[in-house]
Design a protein that fits this description.
Strand content: over 45%
Structural class: mainly beta
Distance between the termini: 57 Å
Shape: elongated
Number of helices: 0
Strand order of the largest sheet: 9-10-12-13-14
Number of strands: 14
Mean pLDDT: 84
Low-confidence stretches: none
Oligomer: single chain
Length: 153
């Protein structure tokens, strides 16, 4: 009897991963580290490769496409040959706490830009706290690019 495999696509932060539930002897294409990847290191294409592996009762959010891990940051040390999971990675921070930012407020055709200061780190798409330097109020804004956040009113 062939083992059942369930594939669910979902997004973690800004990456597309596949949850794999496998039992028995079935090969899956997975992403593995070519060499040791140090915690905090930005992962490059040459740091990883795809391999077909036999997964025995392995459940987790395993990366199946090498492109989905490139430009991510390792949250932990990853040994050479280790299968890479989403829980081991973090998105690259576009904004760091204390960085000056441009706050863009948009509503229809109206667009206002003011200076701000990031109160926390944030990858693209994350809501972070930002100090509006004009009003001195802390607001929640979405990271849209390096040094740029947006709010809608």
């Amino acid at each position: 009897m062939r083992p059942l495999t369930f594939l669910l696509l979902f997004t973690i932060h800004c990456s597309l991963f596949t949850v794999i539930n496998a039992s028995g002897m079935e090969k899956q294409s997975v992403v593995v580290a070519k060499d040791f990847i140090k915690r905090g290191q930005s992962i490059k294409a040459e740091d990883v490769r795809s391999e077909d592996r036999i997964l025995l009762r392995l459940t987790g959010n395993i990366a199946q496409d090498a492109g989905s891990v490139v430009d991510k940051i390792a949250k932990m040390d990853i040994r050479a040959g280790m299968v890479i999971k989403a829980s081991m990675l973090d998105c690259k921070k576009l904004i760091k706490r204390g960085d000056p930012v441009s706050i863009i407020a948009e509503s229809g055709p109206l667009r206002v830009t003011v200076a701000g200061k990031a109160m926390e780190d944030g990858p693209e798409g994350k809501l972070i706290k930002v100090l509006n330097l004009s009003s001195r109020k802390i607001i929640a804004a979405k990271v849209v690019a390096n040094s740029t956040v947006s709010v809608h009113f």
